[in-house]
Amino acid sequence: MSDKTFVGGIHPYDGKDLSKDKPIRVVLPNGELVYPLAQHIGAPATPIVSKGDKVLAGQRIAAAVGFVSAPIYATVSGTVKAIEPRRVVTGDMVMSIIIENDGLYDEVDYPPVKPLAEMSRAEIVECVKEAGIVGMGGAGFPTFIKLSPPDPDAIRYVCVNCAECEPYLTSDYRRILEETERLIGGLRVYLALFPKARGIFAVEDNKPDCIKLLKELIRDEPRMSVTALKTKYPQGAERQLIYAVTGRAINSSMLPADVGCVVSNVDTVITVNRAVNEGKPMMYRVVTVTGDAIVDPVNFIVRIGTNYNQLLEEAGGFRKKPAKVISGGPMMGFALFDTNVPTTKTASALLCLTADAVADLEPTACINCGKCAEVCPGRVLPSRLAVYADHGREEEFLRLNGMECCECGCCSYVCPAKRHLTQSIKSMRKMQLAKRKKEAKK
Question: Which domains does the chain have, with CATH numbers?
Answer without folding.
Answer: 112-278 (3.40.50.11540), 371-441 (no CATH)
